[in-house]
Task: structure prediction
Amino acid sequence: MHSLTSPRVRCRKFAEIAAYEPRRRDWQHLNALLELLEERGRISDSAIGVKLHVSHTAVWRWRQRPGFETWLNSQLQARTQHWKTFVLARAFALAMRGSIKHMDFLARVLGWYKQPEGGSEPTINVIFGPGLRARD
Result:
């Protein structure tokens, strides 16, 4: 089994994306999905179908095309990178103000937790400087 970082998997995914020819409706699907994300709406084939004025089964059929999901995921990753940056920047700012919830979030997302021996829950130790205290 190949890991996600192995060169063979990356090359296969790149070849799949490069070989995929997106149609007009694929771009419409992507834009509808991005609109739903921005509106914090429900993400489903039905919701995308409503935005595009087609049935949810039509949306499902589009997703079955070989290479579509890989193409869609690569487009979503490229277009939502600025959201991730904003979320991380906000989490860092709140963590620096003493928010334990945001410290925990960052530790989990960025892999800062060290797995302890024996399979117990990971912990993080926080040392506060002068004038700082934990919030939450």
In short: The radius of gyration is 21 Å.
